[in-house]
Design a protein that fits this description.
single chain, 613 residues, alpha+beta, Penicillin-binding protein 2a (Domain 2), Beta-lactamase, 3 domains, seven-stranded mixed sheet, 22 helices
């Protein structure tokens, strides 16, 4: 009986275990079935997307910026293909080995790359570790492709300035967009790492030039290597710009100004078009196209000669004797002199106990207006300015376009300064002194002007009195040549003087160049009638340096040299202003440059049909 009982108990135990095991197996299969159903039905779309993301990668395609051409259709700025070396951390298993192999041939900062990977928002995001690598470096990466999983080359357009430093202050440069700039753009197609116009035309017309990015979707293998393209949305090209600049003239002026600091502006008196604009020292915008190092940037912004400053529109200098044009016009219009009024120049003008010297030690003798302009007699204009008073004199200076921006279509233009009694009282907290009027009458004292203001003033004198708003953009069009915008000439104002006064001044300015006693005779050109005015702007008081030669005076204390002119005299085609920093005398340092510039442009203009419409 016991044996039989044991058999029954054992049998019951086995049955229970079989049932439990069966239930366990059934439950396990049920769980697996439910899990498979959950993954394949409920999570199907999400998992499919994740799988596709592991296999499909979206690659942004940067837009090609619009090209820039000169007034005659010559290409100045375009884009060239650039190879960027990039990595995707997700596909890299042994980062140290990969970076070591890359660094054996390509100059990269491995520690910086590691920091960028650590700070990256996602491991599947590509990181550019070096821009614009050389052909030898491209060949190395391609050759070792199988050994560099997650490392690949991206081709993107890079800005290409065909003339190097020529015109760099006009065209400007690109720079990587900063987080501050990105945050300031409410609606934009920009991302960190993109390049944006930071200066000059590149900045002023960024929205026109930039284009719109595209994208492509590519299949990649487990190492992140591209297998094939599934879909591509091509980027849109930016619009092209046509400038009023004559790039051949620009190149020639740059050569004429080699070794000098300062600025040159050449303008068409008929409509205010800028023909050339030079600022020295300059820089090569190609160096900025791929990004510059912190060391280079620090060196260039701390350079004592300020190569990034566009002296043509931002340099503010005393106008020197070129300002005598304003003083003469004001004197005639206000009736304090006539064309025949004579003033004796003994070499100084006495005001109280103080004497104001003329540049000519022994004096010029008896002067009437025309000869006073031709020989640039300081005493004559001291007298006229003193009779006028500062406020009347300043009113005419403002009327000639000085002391306010010309509104040229480049950012950063300075206003200059034309002083008045009220200005000195409010800014300096001091009353105006009569001696300051004497200095102001020959373009010294508080007076400050920019080279573009001077060129625009001479253009207005030459064209009969119309002050144009200078322009540097001729037209904007699409890549297929369809015109979408054209900048028309805009009149900013007119010289507030009579035609009789203007004719008298023009005749005297012609004498400055053509007369044997004229201070600007170094700009005389055979067969071309030039009218102009020299100027020497003092950096320190004459009494401190009058006994020294230019070579004995430290460079930074030497006078600035001016020459402003227009030609041909009867029907001007060009007006120029030349400012040579610390160049000495306008007649010897600036006038010859202006003469060669004028000769080159007019002869070129007369011998070929100009394409500018």
């Amino acid at each position: 009986m016991k044996i039989g009982g044991l058999d029954r108990n054992f049998s019951e135990t086995i049955k229970v275990r079989i049932i439990v095991f069966t239930l366990f197996i059934a439950a396990s299969f049920s769980f697996l079935i439910l899990r498979l159903w959950y993954l394949q039905v409920i999570k199907s779309d999400e998992l499919k997307l994740q799988a596709e993301n592991n296999r499909i990668r979206m690659v942004p395609l940067k837009a090609y910026r619009g090209k820039i051409f000169d007034r005659n259709g010559r290409e100045i700025i375009n884009n060239r293909p650039s190879f960027n070396l990039s990595i995707i951390p997700e596909y890299i298993k042994d980062l140290d080995r990969i970076l070591s192999l890359i660094a054996s041939e390509v100059n990269v900062d491995t520690e910086k790359i590691k920091r960028e990977i650590k700070n990256s928002s996602t491991p599947v995001q590509s990181i550019v570790i070096k821009k614009d690598i050389s052909w030898d470096e491209v060949a190395f990466i391609e050759e070792h492709g199988l050994d560099l999983p997650g490392v690949f080359l991206e081709i993107e357009p890079m800005r290409n300035y065909l003339y190097g430093e020529t015109g760099s202050h006009i065209f400007g440069y690109l720079g990587e967009i900063t987080k501050t700039q990105l945050d300031g753009l409410k609606v934009s197609d920009y991302r960190l790492g993109d390049f944006i116009g930071q200066y000059g035309i590149e900045k002023r017309y960024e929205s026109v030039l930039k284009g719109k990015r595209g994208s492509k979707y590519v299949e990649v293998d487990v190492a992140g290597r591209e297998l094939k393209v599934f879909k591509q949305i091509d980027p849109d090209f930016g619009y092209n710009l046509y400038l009023t600049i004559d790039i051949e003239l620009q190149e020639e002026v740059e050569k004429l100004f080699e070794g000098k600091n300062g600025a040159v502006v050449a303008i068409d008196p008929k409509d205010g078009s800028i023909l050339a604009m030079v600022s020295k020292p300059s820089f090569d915008p190609n160096l900025f196209a791929g990004g510059v190092s912190k060391t280079y940037w620090s060196n260039i912004i701390n350079d004592a000669y300020k190569p990034l400053q566009n002296r043509a529109i931002q340099g503010q200098y005393p106008p020197g004797s070129v300002f005598k044009i304003v003083t003469a016009a004001a004197g005639l219009e206000e009736g304090v002199i006539t064309p025949d009024t004579t003033i004796d120049c003994h070499g100084y003008f006495k005001l109280g106990k103080k004497s104001y010297r003329c540049w000519k030690k022994g004096g010029h003798g008896r002067m009437e207006l025309r000869n006073a302009i031709i020989q640039s007699c300081d005493v004559y204009f001291y007298t006229v300015g003193f009779r006028l008073g500062i406020d009347r004199l300043s009113r005419y200076a403002f009327g000639f376009g000085l002391g306010s921006p010309t509104d040229i279509d480049i950012e950063g233009e300075k206003t200059g300064l034309i002083p008045t009694e009220e200005w000195k009282e409010s800014v300096k907290g001091e009353p105006w002194i009569l001696g300051e009027t004497v200095s102001a009458s020959i373009g010294q004292g508080f007076n400050l002007v920019t080279p573009i203001q001077m060129a625009n003033m001479l253009a207005a004198v030459g064209n009969g009195g119309t002050l144009y708003k200078p322009k540097i953009i001729r037209k904007v069009d699409t890549t297929d040549g369809k015109l979408i915008n054209k900048t028309d000439s805009k009149i900013k104002g007119s010289l507030s003087v009579s035609q009789k006064t203007l004719d008298l001044i023009k005749d005297a300015l012609h004498g400055v160049v053509s007369d044997q006693r004229g201070t600007g005779r170094a700009s005389n050109i055979k067969g071309i009638e030039v009218a102009g005015k020299t100027g020497t702007a003092q950096v320190i008081r004459m009494a401190e340096i009058e006994e020294k030669s230019d070579e004995e005076i430290p460079y930074e204390f030497r006078d600035h040299a001016w020459f402003a002119a227009f030609a041909p005299y009867e029907n001007p085609m060009i007006a120029v202003a030349v400012l040579v920093e610390h160049g000495g005398h306008g007649g010897s340092a600036a006038a010859p440059i202006a003469g060669k510039l004028i000769k080159s442009y007019i002869e070129s203009h007369q011998s070929t049909s100009n394409k500018y419409e």
